[in-house]
Amino acid sequence: MAQEGDNGSPKSSPYEEALEALSSLITKRTRVGDVNMEERFLVLFEYLKMLELEEAISNLKIIHVAGTKGKGSTCTFTESILRNCGFRTGLFTSPHLIDIRERFRLDGVEICEEKFLAYFWWCYDRLKEKTDDKVPMPTFFHFLALLAFKIFSEEQVDVCIMEVGLGGKYDATNVVQKPIVCGITSLGYDHMEILGNTLGEIAGEKAGILKHRIPAFTVTQPDEAMDVLKEKASQLNVPLQVTSPLDAKLLNGLKLGLEGEHQYVNAGLAVALCSTWMNINGHLEESHLKQIQHTLPEQFINGLTTASLQGRAQIVRDEHVNNKISNELVFFLDGAHSPESMEACAKWFSLAIKDQNQTLFHQIADNSRFSNKVVKTHQSETQKSAQILLFNCMSVRDPQLLLPHLMKTCADHGVYFKKALFVPGLSMYHKIGSHALTPSDSNIDLSWQFTLQRVWENLMQGNKGKNNSAASEELAGMEMSVSNCEHSAVFSSLPLVINWLRDRVQQNQSTRFQVLVTGSIHLIGDVLKLVKK
């Protein structure tokens, strides 16, 4: 039970107080901002002096990773491999899904509340004391990157894996002057309002993490992007190598811990980063380095097959419903938000639901040993499933690029959505913690959700006759929505969507509801918060 303050209102916990302080660093302006990015980046070195972190950072043995798609997955594989090799690991990633502490992992586990608070206030108080009008407090992400360096240096990690937040050249993690090795994952169109409108411009920003003579690896890229990466590498005398996707045979019959065919690309890059890091630090001989391409050490296999990452190709059953009735409400969560990753997400979802429907069919058939009649009844029931899309994306992204990729790839695999649901984010842009929930009132601006709905309805009209997703009696109760069209609906809040889905499951006990949640990593986090309550 929460303690009461002097005025009778509930007293915030020490953790909530820290999150309130952190929320104060989130700038209200748009992400593009009105400040020169280079100037803001250079101020970071002032903060490092204030926190006396310059020497600490130079002593960290850092793996630095940038890219458009697969950064988080590559960093996760890398951390898991090196932890399984016996090294103490520090991993900094973004964004978080449920709790800010997810961004700071020690030996694969998010930092505990006690340590987080100690390091947070150490940094926050010093910066409050030393900053002024000329050098104001750092912005939200800048502070988190500084905090990560403080945590990992104090915790004396053997290896520090830093995922770039945005871009590369002017990202807060790029205060690192001498990483051990750098990685650049698949490049594509994203954050064009900041990074540029061509793949070449975007590649130039990502290549900003390359350092003089420091080895670097990338994956196969479009020619326009690869040409820029090679040119930047040449200017800095960087030995840049292109890694191949991991050969699945090297896993000795096991599967990668992260789902999806595209993960073999990320795994191949992670293996190169780990083996190079180990070689440079004297933990792997040159002869063994070459052998790794043909035979993976057991620790590497363990790392790759046990790696886990929330919100990327993640399947979560809604226990709220499933404990009470026989059918299922299952959420398929993937934070895809670029055209290419949307395609990969759609492919994963299509294969995952077929796999799940088949598995469930066999399980029920196996358990029904009473008579052929019983088995047949169960077969017809298990074949009935409804696919729903739950979608939101930031308004800087182009739904005309995202949604067609998603719809076409699913259709190519014979998957058609009964309904697409569009909803605003639950978390407020300028708040984190338990207070970061938007009220479910009529004042919420839903204009962006109506735009998404129009795009979807137009796509569905253009594809008439090619799909079998006609709305059915299973999807009644649409009075809970703000705008209901033939193929889609807009809801004013996420809790309303979850309640509507749970009601549908209750009303249709012969139908399994499979909900693909995608378009925004923030939406994924919001769904997890509600479903795991």
UniProtKB/TrEMBL annotation:
<protein>
    <recommendedName>
        <fullName>Folylpolyglutamate synthase</fullName>
        <ecNumber>6.3.2.17</ecNumber>
    </recommendedName>
</protein>
<keyword id="KW-0436">Ligase</keyword>
<keyword id="KW-0547">Nucleotide-binding</keyword>
<feature type="binding site">
    <location>
        <position position="191"/>
    </location>
    <ligand>
        <name>Mg(2+)</name>
    </ligand>
</feature>
<keyword id="KW-0479">Metal-binding</keyword>
<dbReference type="InterPro" id="IPR036565">
    <property type="entry name" value="Mur-like_cat_sf"/>
</dbReference>
<keyword id="KW-0067">ATP-binding</keyword>
<dbReference type="InterPro" id="IPR001645">
    <property type="entry name" value="Folylpolyglutamate_synth"/>
</dbReference>
<dbReference type="InterPro" id="IPR023600">
    <property type="entry name" value="Folylpolyglutamate_synth_euk"/>
</dbReference>
<dbReference type="InterPro" id="IPR036615">
    <property type="entry name" value="Mur_ligase_C_dom_sf"/>
</dbReference>
<feature type="binding site">
    <location>
        <position position="334"/>
    </location>
    <ligand>
        <name>ATP</name>
    </ligand>
</feature>
<dbReference type="GO" id="GO:0004326">
    <property type="term" value="F:tetrahydrofolylpolyglutamate synthase activity"/>
</dbReference>
<feature type="domain" description="Mur ligase central">
    <location>
        <begin position="65"/>
        <end position="243"/>
    </location>
</feature>
<feature type="binding site">
    <location>
        <position position="163"/>
    </location>
    <ligand>
        <name>Mg(2+)</name>
    </ligand>
</feature>
<feature type="binding site">
    <location>
        <position position="94"/>
    </location>
    <ligand>
        <name>Mg(2+)</name>
    </ligand>
</feature>
<dbReference type="InterPro" id="IPR018109">
    <property type="entry name" value="Folylpolyglutamate_synth_CS"/>
</dbReference>
<comment type="pathway">
    <text>Cofactor biosynthesis; tetrahydrofolylpolyglutamate biosynthesis.</text>
</comment>
<keyword id="KW-0460">Magnesium</keyword>
<dbReference type="GO" id="GO:0005524">
    <property type="term" value="F:ATP binding"/>
</dbReference>
<dbReference type="GO" id="GO:0046872">
    <property type="term" value="F:metal ion binding"/>
</dbReference>
<dbReference type="GO" id="GO:0006730">
    <property type="term" value="P:one-carbon metabolic process"/>
</dbReference>
<feature type="binding site">
    <location>
        <position position="312"/>
    </location>
    <ligand>
        <name>ATP</name>
    </ligand>
</feature>
<keyword id="KW-0554">One-carbon metabolism</keyword>
<comment type="similarity">
    <text>Belongs to the folylpolyglutamate synthase family.</text>
</comment>
<dbReference type="Pfam" id="PF08245">
    <property type="entry name" value="Mur_ligase_M"/>
</dbReference>
<dbReference type="InterPro" id="IPR013221">
    <property type="entry name" value="Mur_ligase_cen"/>
</dbReference>
<comment type="function">
    <text>Catalyzes conversion of folates to polyglutamate derivatives allowing concentration of folate compounds in the cell and the intracellular retention of these cofactors, which are important substrates for most of the folate-dependent enzymes that are involved in one-carbon transfer reactions involved in purine, pyrimidine and amino acid synthesis.</text>
</comment>
